[in-house]
Amino acid sequence: MKPSLSLLVLPFALLGLVACGGGSSSSSAAPAPAATTFTYTDPAGTGWRLTRDASSTPTHLVLNLVGPAGTLGRGAAFTLKGDATRLTWGRIEGEYIQDAGLLELAFDPQDPNDPKLMVGGINGDLLMAGAFQKDRGLSPKDLGAPLFRVAIDFKANAGLHPGDAIPLTVVKARMLPDDLSTRQTPDITIATGTLIAH
Questions:
Q1: pLDDT tens-digit profile of 121-140?
Q2: How far is CA 189 from the centre of its chain?
Q3: Which end of the chain has less Cβ packing within 10 Å, N or C?
Q4: Checking DSSP bridges between strand 87-90 and strand 168-177, what pairing results, if any?
């Protein structure tokens, strides 16, 4: 029997540098080179985290949401904050979120008209994404594998220089646990890695 979607509440709210010196006016320092790429170093630890997907390129970073191995659940959602003047929220195959294949997001995966319980969108500095198992009659999943993916694109006109850090912070995150009887969506803490311009 298909459950009411009210049991699957989406747990997130959707959703320079000026130098003045006394040197000769006949010479000036060379301008700092502009960054053209970035790199991402995964966070340490084995808890909830955003890890670099192998499909990433030097200008298109794809991040996997991965949970702690052995934790059973039915989905998760987060709000990721980044300075929109220093990055561009990217798309994967035209969408702000991509299913990683772990969760069963539709009642009938073979029916193209059965919408998946997955949503992603942006609002300025915020990227919001979440994916949830739609049928509570199905078994919960071990969340130690990627649940879904989001992306960040290098912003060429951001004035970044090699070595500049581009901060990323998860400001809100919740999970849908294996037991739905309590209707609880516990808060979780998701670690982010280090994003550096080059």
A1: 999 999 999 999 998 888 99
A2: 13
A3: N
A4: unpaired
